[in-house]
Every structure is written in structure tokens, then in C-alpha cells.
Design a protein that fits this description.
Number of helices: 12
Radius of gyration: 18 Å
Order of helices and strands: EHHEHHEEEHHEHEEHEHHEEEHH
Structural class: alpha/beta
Strand content: 15-25%
Number of strands: 12
Length: about 300
């Protein structure tokens, strides 16, 4: 059992009012002025329980079975396997319909991004399910794939066909290894939203300059393969960004000042930084729906007006 330190076990319920977010310098550019919603974070013991359950089985297939159960317990009515015919194992997908078909995809590849990241998917789904959303949300644990072959993410993206690409692809990984940091390939607007939300939580969220100045944790909970992680890191995001989706990424990696291509760090797990990353991602996903609606072109709003609340 992974134990969270007492210092992290305080009150995790937080109200994110518009005034709290608007104080951030970037907020006027990427957040609606009247954003106002409540985020009820999971208790650390609930996160620790999910980590322990996913971490207990040795085989990846058994871990996926546990993850599917956690999705259902979180309230996902639609949990399915996708890409079974062309992948070593299918993607595990939870779909949460919104008022419109415009979609936000949240995905990780557990064998590269770490099983703690995968264990967080159902907990983030709980946040989205807490109230109706304009956008539809999809949470996915992508199948393993060979180096330089983003099989699971690519299979999922191709399954969407030529329809409108997802509005945003949210990617995260290696959480709990270091304090969370924004990925180098994050779109400008999404970087702004992430930083603004983090500041409302009292967190200064830094951003990576590139993927070459990074220490990667390998082994234990984290990546099962430590070869070529710098090359592998951005492939899942690339299959979405190349077809027009904005990208947001949050990772538990450490950026170094000196150039050190894909250095390996000693594997360790810090519950406090894991909870911190969870809080940032939860608040971000809760705010993202409003931010996208607020920043949508007027013509798009006119073409498909949102139902009155």
C-alpha cells in the first residue's frame, strides 16, 4: 500500500471562483471572466487505494481489468475495448457524452507513461462526471506499442475517421516522480489555462523547453522500457496535433540546465507530487470545458447553439 504523508491529507475540496482565477496575468487571454465552479478533489487515501489496486497485478492484462473496474466504479457507463484486431492488446476507453459531439480526449500509454498515470484516469473521470459538460470526454489507456510506433494512440485517432478532430488531447505521465511540469509540446492556449488554474491552487507550474533536457524515471511504477524515452515521449501527442487538435501535457519529470539527452533518474515515488499533479489536472479538466466554449468562434456557436441550462 502506498501511504500518503499526513501533510497531504488535509482538506482537498476547493472552490475555484472566477476572481481566484482572474488574478493570474494570463487569465484574460484564455479563461472566461465569469468562470465559476466547484471541484471536489478525491481524498489522498482514495488515490492511494486506486494506485494499490492497479499496482498489485503483475501482468498488464490483469492491470487493465482492474482499471476497467475502476472506470465503472467511477461512473463510466460506457467502458469498451478499441482496436483489438490490430493491436497487441486493445485500448481501454471510457466515453462520457456531453451536450455536443465536440470531444476532449485524455489518454496515457501505461507502459511508457507509468501505471500511476493510468490509475489516475478513473479519478479524473469522476471530476468530469460531477456535472453536465458541453463537450464529450474520452478517457483512454492506450495499448503498448513498439518504440517509434504509437500504435494505441494512432489506432484510436484513426478510429475517429475524418470527422472533426478532438478539440484537445490531454496527455500526462510519470506522475509522482517529480513536481508536475508542463510538456514542451503543449499548445499556447492550453499552457495558459494550465498555469492559471495551477496558480489558483497556489502552484507555480513551470514548462519544459524541450524533451532533451530531462531526467526520466525508469523501473518500478514507471516506464517498463528505459530505451529511447526522449524519442517516444511525444509520439502519442503527435498523432493528435498533426490532425488539428490542441495538445496539453503534464509530466513528473525534472528538467536539467545542461544538455543531457534522455538521462535516466533513479526510480522513486513521491505521493505529495502525485497528489499535486492530480489536483492540477482535475481543476484543468473542470475549467477546460468552459474555456473552450468561451473561446469558440461566434460562427460555430451560431451553427450549433448550446442548450439553455
Amino acid at each position: 500500500m502506498i501511504r500518503m504523508p499526513r501533510s497531504v491529507c488535509g482538506a482537498l475540496a476547493l472552490t475555484l471562483w472566477g476572481a481566484a482565477l482572474a488574478h493570474a496575468e494570463e487569465a484574460p487571454a484564455c479563461l472566461p471572466a465569469d468562470v465559476s465552479l466547484r471541484v471536489q478533489f478525491a481524498e489522498p487515501k482514495q488515490l492511494a487505494k486506486a494506485l494499490a489496486e492497479v499496482g498489485k497485478p503483475r501482468r498488464g492484462a490483469a492491470k487493465r481489468e482492474v482499471l476497467a473496474r475502476l472506470f465503472r466504479e467511477a461512473g463510466c457507463a460506457s467502458v469498451e475495448d478499441q482496436g483489438a484486431s490490430e493491436l497487441p492488446e486493445p485500448n481501454l476507453v471510457c466515453r462520457i457524452p456531453g451536450r455536443t459531439s465536440s470531444t476532449i480526449v485524455i489518454g496515457v500509454s501505461p507502459q511508457v507513461d507509468g501505471w500511476p498515470a493510468a490509475a489516475l484516469l478513473p479519478e479524473l473521470a469522476r471530476i468530469v462526471l460531477a456535472e453536465p459538460r458541453e463537450h464529450s470526454y474520452v478517457f483512454a489507456a492506450f495499448s503498448r506499442s513498439a518504440l517509434l510506433t504509437p500504435g494505441g494512440a494512432r489506432s484510436f485517432r484513426e478510429s475517429l475517421g475524418e470527422h472533426e478532430p478532438p478539440a484537445v488531447f490531454v496527455h500526462f505521465g510519470l506522475l509522482g516522480a517529480e513536481a508536475p511540469i508542463i510538456g514542451a509540446d503543449t499548445s499556447d492556449e492550453q499552457r495558459c489555462i494550465l498555469k492559471s488554474v495551477a496558480r489558483a491552487l497556489g502552484i507555480e507550474l513551470k514548462a519544459l523547453r524541450d524533451w532533451e533536457r530531462v531526467y526520466y524515471p525508469c523501473g518500478a511504477f514507471f516506464a517498463t522500457t528505459c530505451t529511447g524515452l526522449s524519442d517516444r515521449r511525444d509520439l502519442d501527442t503527435f498523432v493528435f496535433s498533426r490532425t488539428g487538435s490542441a495538445v496539453a501535457g503534464v509530466y513528473g519529470v525534472k528538467e536539467e540546465l545542461s544538455l543531457g539527452y534522455g538521462k535516466r533518474g533513479a526510480p522513486h515515488f513521491d505521493p505529495a507530487t502525485f497528489v499535486q499533479a492530480y489536483r492540477v489536472l482535475s481543476a484543468y479538466l473542470a475549467v477546460l470545458d468552459q474555456a473552450l466554449v468561451s473561446n469558440a468562434p461566434a460562427s460555430a456557436s451560431a451553427a450549433e447553439p448550446a442548450p439553455t441550462l
